[in-house]
Design a protein that fits this description.
mainly beta, two-stranded antiparallel ribbon, globular
Length: 89
Amino acid sequence: MRSVSPVITESEVHAEQVIALEQAHIYEPIIVARIMCLDGSIWSATRFRFTEDERAKIAAGADLILSQPHHGSMMPVALQLAMPDQYPG
């Protein structure tokens, strides 16, 4: 699984940044889009593309596990599916 751009659509690419780019020996770089919502809240979104092997494991019933490092309180997360260049739905 790898982090891919565009995270949402091509029109939001300007809002993306790469996290852990200089830490590839410890962490995989992740492309993150910072999204300002109409209510003023800010979300970070990342899109991952699965390899064919990973897709086969998911089709066979494998679960997707989301892990987060804790640097204080737990932040809410959302896990969604979307086709390339489409908004999650």
